[in-house]
Design brief:
Layout lengths: L2 E2 L15 H10 L4 E7 L9 H5 L4 H21 L5 E9 L5 H11 L4 E5 L2 E2 L2 E2 L4 H10 L4 H19 L3 E2 L20 H17 L2 E5 L1 H4 L9 H9 L3 E5 L12 H11 L3 E7 L11 E7 H5 L11
Parallel strand pairs: 1-2, 2-3, 3-4, 4-7, 7-8, 8-9
Antiparallel strand pairs: 5-6, 10-11
Helix pairs in contact: 6-7
Length: 310
């Protein structure tokens, strides 16, 4: 019964590895029950990442790649339907207010079963790529990490209000490339106010936060979101799902045992997951429902024998 609601493949993502089919086959081998395919949405020319520029990508090429992804994902969903519950979706990137029109056009063009709402850019600059780009964004925020955090959560709030993502991706990604990635947000009044505001809004429309193990894979002490954020979300009545944010077959289920120990420690008792069925949460996706499973049931599943991480 383990799940991953956030995944990428090297076939359609320049900074990932392995084909989409290889990702699905690895998920089957590791006894994943639900796998959401969530390749990145296309972006404008000015928002290409360095590896995309190096590969000669263009805005038009990204649109073609995404179209190819959707066709292949639907094909593989049908091919492996007896072995794995596959949901076809996307990870949308909120970069600026104009992102809203692009996202809505994407959602109207493709029949997704869910999408993840994420923020990877602040001031139009990727904040999770490397320390140099993080510093560039920080400079625009007045050379203040605290102010950059505030700007990040303000941008996230724009995204939440505009598109109400069913799943909110790596909620506190902004800390990844900061000088102190394990710092407490509660010591920064303006930042914590914005975090609480965003979490309360997610609860108000029925959104779900992913517990994302990629932070552990990248050397942080806690997953996304960290303990204090996760506890605040719990207090507000929020629900969590599981994601590995895998970018290749070696990362499927990575650090899930550690992720579940974290969930148990902070008081999470059940995990939400998505599957095909009559809509119970988001009418934009009429053929997808949400269900819950007890954390204790997940912990006893044989899947965790094949997980990496301690």
């Amino acid at each position: 019964m383990p799940y991953s609601h956030h995944s990428h493949s090297g076939q359609y993502c320049a900074h990932a590895r392995d084909t989409l089919e290889a990702v699905i086959m690895a998920a089957i081998e590791r006894k994943i029950q639900v796998l959401a395919l969530t390749e990145h949405m296309p972006r404008e020319q000015s928002d290409l990442y360095p590896e995309e520029i190096a590969a000669g990508y263009s805005e038009e090429r990204l649109l073609d790649i995404f179209s190819d992804y959707y066709i292949k994902a639907c094909e593989l969903q049908n091919k492996y339907s007896s072995e794995l519950s596959i949901l076809v979706g996307t990870e949308v990137d909120w970069i600026r207010p104009a992102s809203k029109d692009f996202i809505e056009d994407l959602l109207s063009k493709y029949q997704f079963q869910l999408f993840i709402g994420s923020v990877h850019h602040v001031h139009g600059i990727p904040i999770d790529y490397d320390a140099r780009m993080f510093a560039e964004a920080r400079k625009i925020s007045g050379e203040s990490t605290e102010r950059l955090f505030e700007d990040y959560f303000d941008l996230q709030y724009e995204m939440l209000k505009a598109v109400e993502p069913p799943i909110v991706g790596h909620f506190d990604l902004i800390r990844l490339k900061s000088e102190q990635p394990n710092i407490s947000f509660t010591n920064m009044e303006g930042v914590w106010h914005r975090i609480h505001r965003n979490l309360a809004f997610i609860v108000s429309y029925g959104g779900i936060l992913e517990l994302n193990s990629a932070a552990l894979r990248k050397g942080l002490q806690e997953p996304y979101p960290n303990e204090e954020v996760s506890k605040e979300f719990l207090t507000l009545g929020g629900s969590f799902t599981l994601s590995d944010d895998s970018h290749g077959i070696d990362q499927i289920g990575s650090h899930y045992r550690e992720l579940l120990r974290f969930a148990e420690r902070i008081g999470i008792v059940q995990i939400t997951y998505f599957e095909k069925g009559s809509s119970t949460r988001d009418t934009r996706f009429p053929n997808v429902t949400t269900r819950t499973t007890a954390l204790s049931q997940l912990q006893g599943h044989p899947f965790f024998e094949s997980c990496k991480g301690t």
